[in-house]
Amino acid sequence: MKNSYFKYVVCCFLLIGFSCKNEMKTSKEAQIEQKVDALLKLMTLEEKIGQMSQIRHFEEDADVHITTKFIGSVIHTQGPNPGKTALGWQKRFTELQHKALSTRLGIPLLFAVDAVHGQNTFEGATIFPHNIGLGATQNAELVKQIAAITALESQATGFNWVFAPCIAIPFNEKWGRVYEAFSESTELTEKLTKAAVNGYQGALSEATTVMATAKHFIGDGATDFGIEGGETSLNSEQIQERLLAPYKIAVKENIGAVMASFNTVTGISMHAHKALITDTLKVGMNFDGIVVSDWKGYSRFGKNDIINAGIDVVMAVDGDLEGFQEGVKAGIQDQTVKIARIDDAVKRILRQKFRLGLFENPFPDASLISEIGSKAHRDIARQAVRESLVLLKNEKNVLPLSKEIKKIVVVGEHANSSGLQSGGWTVNWQGTKENYKGASTILDGIKKQSKGEVVYDKDATQKHFDADVAIIVIGEIPYAEFFGDIGHESNQLKLTVTEAHQKYIKTYQEKGIKTVVVLVSGRPLVVTNQIEKSDAFIAAWLLGSEGEGVAEVLFGDFNFSGTLPHSWPKGVKDYQSKYGPNFWDQSKEPLFKFGYGLTY
Ligand code: BGC
């Protein structure tokens, strides 16, 4: 009796607390809506269109445009850095923010960055495994921590908005952006999307969190034959079933923005797809945040059609600003664009600026700078590397390696380059082949773990045939976006590993040396023969700055726990039709199924 009375009292308190919290939330939201409406009433058409415009900080007249064209946001991808140090970046963005605040209405700027695996545009930041590796960890708590660190390091370099996470569901491994997505599994993507959005945004208004962007809406990874920006020929049920679910989660978790994708859906450009952007996302899912265009979306995908379809912020970069601003104005004048549409777009932008607390705290916090690339952050990245490794083969228990092994030869340029191990979107858009600041390589980790002799043979020409074990690191060179599409004219990429890399394995394997192969790649590749020839085979994805994490598992300080986020192909012919050996297409039996992964 006593017990149930006690429970009743606790419940009442909890309920009161809960409803108070909800009421506080609603009243805060109601106040924001009032402020948005009041501010909107004061705005001229030019000021409204300005809020919808996004420019780069180094473009000609950027500073002037912020005040004369009432720019709403600034984007940083690559190109001239805003300074040599994080303080330099903060100073530059503070300077631009002051300009925005000096305008008639003083509306603060949003600063956006492609921080897709850490604040990867700043050399010295912590770089995490790309999303495909995080998919292999299946660890939502870890993904949340990673997103929170990325948010903090982004804030520390002056940003309050990230263009992440990519929540695509890749259907064909030929697509050059497979690694930007968590998994081919909708369920796993949903789980990690929730974690990522919470990690990036927190309560949205803290000094260490940022606004996140779910991208790219929709069908980016499900184009026929995996062509970036190609045609997605799925029907609405298929889109609903496989692709929309992660967006529903993102919206439920209050994601601030969604980016439109380059592809068409059944012949209609996604940027101009009113049924999907407005009816499905904004109205159907109750999304009250910002829909941002992708690169030069206005001039590339239908000008005012994209505004009418529901795009709110336009990446008006590379000479697009004038055309966009004048084009929308002309649309209002000839009534092909309704002012109500512009008002809706501006309300969404202002709403997020209020939610982020930008009107009270528009400037970056210099005290965060010391946390960029900190040991605590790198420890989490190293944990992510360890948990992302998937053991595909371990014959005769060659692994874990004993630390007492007399001589180990480490083969392959990927073993000795933090750039190569990190993939695209690392320091530069297309990545780097060089070592970069603060990072450790796979070779560094092996040297640290082993108590014996470790020699390095870059291209298997050094004939260290007296070695007891060869650790051979092979893989893809960095790429981003269409540059990574297999079959694209811009590259020679294949679904298989290069002949040179095949030879690395053959050279040591033919001498009877135990071979442990580590594959660094942004997607599963056709390596059936190489798996056969090696004693142990590990999929290491694109691991980022903490290469040392690999050896910590190879030498048994930690066990393997990663599982395949994609089904693994058997042969090149698996790719002759629209999709790869995706688990949806049961007609192709993969070499390893989604979820496969051995342990010690
Ligand atoms: C990519 C986006 C990215 C944008 C800004 C585009 O080309 O598709 O993912 O956020 O550029 O850099």
Could you explain how this protein is built, in words?
- This protein has helices at residues 2-42, 45-51, 62-68, 86-101, 131-137, 140-156, 186-201, 236-252, 274-284, 297-300, 304-309, 321-333, 339-355, 375-388, 442-449, 499-509, 528-533, 548-554, and strands at 53-56, 73-76, 110-113, 161-162, 213-217, 231-232, 257-260, 264-265, 268-269, 290-292, 314-315, 390-394, 407-411, 453-457, 469-475, 514-520, 536-539.
- With 600 residues, it is α/β, with parallel strands linked by helices.
- It has two domains: 43-370, TIM Barrel, CATH 3.20.20; 389-575, Rossmann fold, CATH 3.40.50.1700.
- A six-stranded mixed β-sheet has the order 12-17-16-15-13-14, with helices on both faces. It has a five-stranded parallel β-sheet with strand order 4-3-2-1-11.
- Helix 4 (86-101) links the parallel strand 2 and strand 3 (110-113).
- The chain is globular.
- Bound molecules: beta-D-glucopyranose (BGC).
- Residues 77, 114, 163, 215, 294-295, 481 line the site of beta-D-glucopyranose.
What labels would you give this structure?
600 residues, alpha/beta, 2 domains, globular, 6-stranded mixed beta sheet, 5-stranded parallel beta sheet, binds beta-D-glucopyranose, TIM Barrel, Rossmann fold
Number of strands: 17
| Poorly predicted regions | 1-18
Helix share bin: 25-40%
Give the terminus-to-terminus CA distance. 52 Å
Cofactors and ligands: beta-D-glucopyranose
Could you give the order of strands across the largest sheet?
12-17-16-15-13-14
What is the domain tally?
A: 2
Overall body shape? globular
How much of the polypeptide forms β-strand, as a percent range? 5-15%
Helical segment count: 18
* CATH class annotation of the largest domain: Alpha Beta
What is the annotated CATH architecture of the largest domain? Alpha-Beta Barrel
